[in-house]
């Protein structure tokens, strides 16, 4: 009984830690993104609030909280309220299966550094990333606005299309690791990370992940300048901020997924595992930001063509080839 | 091949942005770093004085006539020696567009644009400048110029007695 209680407490502590770290990371990713993009454009970026502008996230939060919170007439209020939360929560939930480090000894107990080591962790991740679509769909629908609805449909089409190639790019990883568990996938990369063993899968996964996190060059869901923003057109204040935070949490999650699937998770020489894990995640986040500073936004038809005519066939081909090669090695 | 060109065009910009990230930003951080505007910069308007320290303004209304937004108003008055001046002179900087037409129109170089651009204020009434606020103790851009030494009624010299002036014409004897 006491064993069970200790387990529950440990899980709660881990959840609290993840919650805190993830939200702080999301807030500071926004800041880091603005600073890095600024430097890429020969500007400084936000540097007024606090030393080096480090209090900028707090200032942003105050601004968002004190802004007028507008609810359109005829909006479906309940759904309008929960849609932004849905976007953030589905992203947060994914972190339950991400392993940060190998299990550690604590007071003579084995404490796994993952909230829940599901043996179908990959499926859980894919399932939740499909659920994230609901935040977009409901947000656009509940706004009672044609623009938001059309924007939501546009975003949904993109998200669902790229989810396919994302799922297909994970299959070779599962084939090579012979497991659906994220911990086993990391452990299977002790020889060499899957990035080196299967670069096409990595590239396809990376591109679909960028699309999945609704970031440039696939940020059609936003596109404030050319077409009305999209599913979050009618949102303001902290409600809009929640969509925004969700996007950045999603970015962290997807970065850690890249790390787990292709970069060997916590594995690495010299440094402690958790440092390796965070370094890899942050490197992926930097790559996202770098991409945003570099590439222009795709046109919508180009985006769909690329997803369906290039990424999905390539991913399928990669599944077949990887499977064939694995069979050949075995036999 | 087109595909090769596309891949190159996608990958190469990454190197460029990375290189630019380590360059020094060109931003001027305003409250700490200030640039000296060029002499012809058009900001806060001032009223200048001639070399002898007298007000240059003769209240001819040309500046307020030239002003496209009607932000200049004044009342003309005359001193005992015949020298004209503005009894009051008012510029409403909330309306001023800093076009410089007033300074162009001024025959006495009295009204001039200065490079002082820091006149922002939260209270619009504080941006209505009276003559006391506008008048400076200096000649501004052409310190030596004195209108009454070249034209105008006999204030500095008797009528027509200025260096580049002819004497007054006697219309009764000006026969062909």
What features would you describe in this structure?
The complex is a heterodimer of chains A (331) and B (176). By secondary structure, chain A is mainly alpha-helical. Chain A has one domain (72-330). Chain A has helices at 2-40, 56-66, 77-94, 121-142, 146-177, 182-187, 194-197, 199-212, 237-262, 273-294, 300-330, and strands spanning 101-106, 109-113. Chain A is globular and about 60 Å long. Chain B has 176 residues and is of the alpha+beta class. Chain B has helices at 2-21, 62-66, 101-105, 131-134; strands at 45-47, 72-78, 84-92, 111-113, 128-129.
Low-confidence regions of chain B: none
Strand content of chain A: under 5%
| SSE sequence of chain B, one letter per element | HEHEEHEEH
Biggest interface, and residues per chain? Answer: A-B, 14 and 15 residues
Distance from N terminus to C terminus of chain A (CA atoms, Å) equals: 49 Å
Detail the poorly predicted runs of chain A: none
Number of domains of chain A: 1
Topology at a glance:
The complex is a heterodimer of chains A (331) and B (176).
Chain A: H1 2-40, H2 56-66, H3 77-94, E1 101-106, E2 109-113, H4 121-142, H5 146-177, H6 182-187, H7 194-197, H8 199-212, H9 237-262, H10 273-294, H11 300-330
Antiparallel strand pairs in A: 1-2
Chain B: H1 2-21, E1 45-47, H2 62-66, E2 72-78, E3 84-92, H3 101-105, E4 111-113, E5 128-129, H4 131-134
Antiparallel strand pairs in B: 1-4, 2-3, 3-5
Membrane topology (chain A): Multi-pass membrane protein
Family (chain A): Belongs to the complex I subunit 1 family.
Keywords (chain A): Cell membrane, Membrane, NAD, Quinone, Translocase, Transmembrane, Transmembrane helix, Ubiquinone
Q: Keywords, please?
A:
heterodimer, A: 331 residues, mainly alpha, two-stranded antiparallel ribbon, 11 helices, B: 176 residues, alpha+beta, three-stranded antiparallel β-sheet, two-stranded antiparallel sheet, elongated
């Amino acid at each position: 009984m006491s064993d069970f209680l200790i387990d529950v407490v440990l899980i709660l502590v881990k959840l609290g830690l993840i919650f805190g770290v993830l939200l702080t990371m999301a807030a500071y990713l926004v800041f880091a993104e603005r600073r890095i993009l600024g430097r890429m454009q020969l500007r400084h970026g936000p540097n007024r609030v606090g030393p080096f502008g480090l209090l900028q996230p707090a200032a942003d939060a105050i601004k968002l909280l004190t802004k007028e919170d507008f609810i359109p007439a005829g909006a479906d209020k309940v759904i309008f309220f929960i849609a932004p939360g849905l976007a953030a929560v589905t992203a947060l939930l994914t972190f339950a299966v991400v392993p940060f480090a190998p299990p550690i000894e604590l007071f003579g107990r084995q404490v796994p550094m993952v909230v829940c080591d599901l043996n179908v962790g990959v499926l859980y991740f894919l399932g939740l990333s499909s659920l994230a679509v609901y935040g977009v769909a409901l947000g656009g629908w509940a706004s009672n606005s044609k623009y938001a609805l059309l924007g939501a449909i546009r975003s949904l089409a993109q998200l669902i299309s790229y989810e396919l190639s994302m799922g297909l790019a994970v299959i070779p990883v599962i084939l090579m690791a012979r497991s659906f568990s994220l911990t086993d996938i990391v452990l299977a990369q002790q020889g060499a990370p899957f990035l080196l063993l299967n670069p096409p899968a990595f590239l396809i996964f990376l591109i679909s992940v960028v699309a999945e996190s609704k970031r440039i060059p696939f940020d059609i869901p936003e596109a404030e300048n050319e077409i009305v923003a999209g599913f979050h057109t009618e949102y303001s204040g902290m409600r809009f901020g929640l969509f925004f935070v969700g996007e950045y949490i999603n970015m962290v999650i997807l970065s850690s997924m890249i790390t787990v699937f292709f970069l060997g998770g916590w594995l690495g020489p010299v440094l402690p595992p958790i440092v390796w894990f965070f370094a890899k995640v942050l490197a992926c986040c930097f790559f996202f930001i770098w991409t945003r500073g570099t590439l222009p936004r795709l046109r919508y038809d180009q985006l769909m063509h690329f997803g369906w005519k290039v990424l999905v066939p390539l991913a399928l081909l990669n599944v077949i080839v990887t499977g064939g090669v694995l069979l050949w090695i075995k036999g | 091949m087109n595909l090769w060109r596309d891949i190159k065009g996608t990958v190469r910009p990454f190197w460029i942005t990375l290189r630019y990230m380590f360059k020094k930003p060109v931003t001027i951080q305003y409250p700490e770093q200030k640039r000296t505007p060029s002499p012809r910069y058009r900001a806060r308007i001032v009223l200048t004085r001639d070399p002898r320290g007298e007000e240059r303004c003769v209240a001819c209304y040309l500046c307020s006539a030239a002003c496209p937004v009607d932000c200049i108003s004044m009342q003309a008055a005359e001193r005992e020696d015949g020298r004209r001046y503005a009894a009051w002179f008012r510029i409403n900087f909330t309306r001023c567009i800093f076009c410089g037409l007033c300074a162009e129109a001024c025959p006495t170089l009295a009204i001039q644009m200065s490079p002082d651009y820091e006149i922002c204020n939260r209270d619009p009434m504080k941006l209505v400048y009276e003559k006391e606020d506008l008048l400076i103790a200096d000649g501004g851009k052409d310190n030596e110029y004195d209108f009454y030494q070249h034209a105008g009624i006999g204030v500095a010299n008797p009528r027509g007695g200025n260096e580049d002036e002819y004497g007054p014409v006697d219309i009764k004897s000006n026969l062909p």
